[in-house]
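Please fill in the sequence for the structure shown.

STRUCTURE ENCODING:
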């Protein structure tokens, strides 16, 4: 499996205390994504300037000549870089780090099962991304192994995949965390790079079968200023979700991904966007409730207000 990392002691990727495995690679390009290192399906290099000692060892070992020092530190020409990763191994200060690796499913199982002691009755393991459904067959194998050892399982997905992928995964899944971002397909394409017809069809498929499969279904909507926070969008999503999910989380925008974009040499259009206010989030939850979607609630940080 192409993975980004394993995060332990997570409380935001399903109920209870969890370990979350993040896959590498995503078919969407959400403008607000706060995990840009998870988008590409191949290893990438990040430069951590605070660690750099300016020894220029990385430049000496780079066979592609893709590295150079400038006024703002190390510059990586990613159009030239062939991702040989020699620089990450040569850097004595670990200022260059590899993001993403291939690992065998059996190896990942052995790593994840170590954490079973702290899961309790509600916790477990969540497979997230990137997009875990892009690795559906490998994910199903890993989920099966975990379930057979009594571990609670969850998948966190954008829903942009084939229905057959869910057929592989759902029999071994307890909880589905499903993203519904924008109800209008044209606006969805503008902000994520793809339309939402496949996402909505897969939502219908899962919602219609959740009781028969014994699934818990949580819907998640990132509330992004100027993109997904329109009241008509929340109202339209509420009509889709009402009575068909166990929980709907409106996730307040956060700007914690700002430094990640810098380390990858990218700009982020939301770098200066302020956090949502508590009042605004409560208003959006109220709209959802008025439509009849009473399972809606908001989570995440909001702006401090005087």
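FILLED IN BY: designer on duty
SEQUENCE:
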């Amino acid at each position: 499996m192409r993975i980004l990392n394993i995060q332990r002691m997570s409380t935001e990727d399903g109920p209870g205390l969890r370990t979350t495995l993040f896959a590498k690679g995503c078919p969407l390009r959400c403008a607000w994504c706060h995990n840009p290192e998870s988008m590409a399906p191949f290893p990438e290099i990040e430069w951590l300037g605070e660690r750099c000692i300016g020894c220029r060892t990385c430049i000496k070992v780079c066979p592609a000549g893709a590295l150079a020092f400038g006024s703002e530190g190390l510059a990586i020409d990613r159009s030239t870089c062939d991702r040989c990763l020699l620089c990450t191994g040569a850097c004595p200060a670990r200022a260059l780090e590899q993001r993403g690796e291939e690992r065998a499913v059996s190896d990942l199982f052995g790593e994840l099962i170590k954490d079973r002691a702290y899961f309790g009755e509600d916790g477990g393991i969540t497979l997230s991304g990137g997009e875990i459904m892009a690795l559906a067959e490998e994910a199903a194998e890993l989920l099966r192994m975990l379930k057979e050892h009594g571990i609670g399982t969850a998948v966190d997905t954008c829903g942009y995949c084939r229905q057959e992928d869910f057929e592989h995964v759902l029999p071994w899944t307890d909880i589905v965390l499903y993203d519904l971002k924008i109800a209008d397909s044209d606006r969805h394409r503008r902000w994520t790079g793809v339309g939402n017809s496949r996402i909505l069809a897969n939502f219908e498929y899962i919602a219609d079968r959740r009781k028969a499969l014994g699934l818990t279904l949580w819907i998640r909507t990132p509330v992004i200023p100027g993109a997904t926070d329109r009241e008509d969008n929340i109202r339209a999503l509420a009509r889709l979700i009402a009575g068909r999910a166990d929980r709907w989380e409106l996730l307040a925008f956060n700007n914690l991904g700002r430094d990640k974009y810098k380390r990858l040499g990218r700009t982020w259009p939301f770098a200066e966007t302020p956090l949502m206010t508590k009042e605004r989030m409560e208003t959006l939850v109220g709209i959802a409730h008025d439509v009849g979607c009473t399972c809606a609630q908001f989570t995440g940080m909001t702006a401090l207000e005087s």
